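Escalated from tier 1: NAP holo job.
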Amino acid sequence: MEVGILGGTGPAGSGLAARLAAAGLQVAIGSRSKDRAQEIVTGLLERWPGRELALSAADNAMAAEAEVIVVATPWEAAAATAGSVAAQLEGKVVISMANALTRMGHEFEPLVPPRGSVAAHVQSAVPGALVAAAFQHLPAKALSNLDEPVESDVLIASDHPAAFEATARLVSLIPDLRPLNAGSVANAAPIEAFTAVLLQLNVRYKTRAALRLTGIELPQ
Ligand SMILES: NC(=O)c1ccc[n+]([C@@H]2O[C@H](COP(=O)([O-])OP(=O)(O)OC[C@H]3O[C@@H](n4cnc5c(N)ncnc54)[C@H](OP(=O)(O)O)[C@@H]3O)[C@@H](O)[C@H]2O)c1
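Tier 2 regenerated the structure:
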């Protein structure tokens, strides 16, 4: 399966790209500039010389040709970036990982984007796509360090069962991540907003907290 990442040159998108490639997927890192995407791909391949990472550089339009697309831009740009390649995204699973947050002094605070969440805003920009919210809570630094497992639950919110299934399959390819069905895209709002709490905990306890819920036993 090929995954394309719009805005994949930042820490979050490139970290996820490295993880998915380490899991054996082909990943196209998209950017507004293919040259910048190439720099990031070269950097990742140099960082992990012993691994065969199937990473390629693309502009966002080329990355949107993949089977599954991740939107990894800052939140303000997510809907517009997805909308700019709406034709390529028609009928495909599109994963929104953005969080609308702002820093107020020493605190992170959630913002309310148009439509209540970034994922819902992305869905409104690409009505023909199957949007899911996921990966909001995974710290980019942990994602990008392939020598260490990244252990977390991944909450997935979508109005489309096919988008949940495809996103859960991707998540399951990464060891120690557990996909959980968190309901419809209406629940993307609290999922995204909760990232502010995690970041606050990171600052307070000088760590990189991830999410692990107790009491849920998934069938094997
Ligand atoms: N950092 C984390 O730990 C983390 C974890 C989980 C989720 N997230 C979420 O993932 C998203 C990306 O995080 P990040 O830290 O990687 O962000 P980032 O570095 O600020 O942005 C990612 C990429 O988005 C593109 N971009 C920036 N402004 C844009 C614009 N106005 N229009 C279109 N593209 C633009 C840039 O790529 P080009 O210049 O190459 O086009 C940039 O490299 C955020 O929404 C964040 O909330 C972050």
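The chain is about 40% helix and 20% strand.
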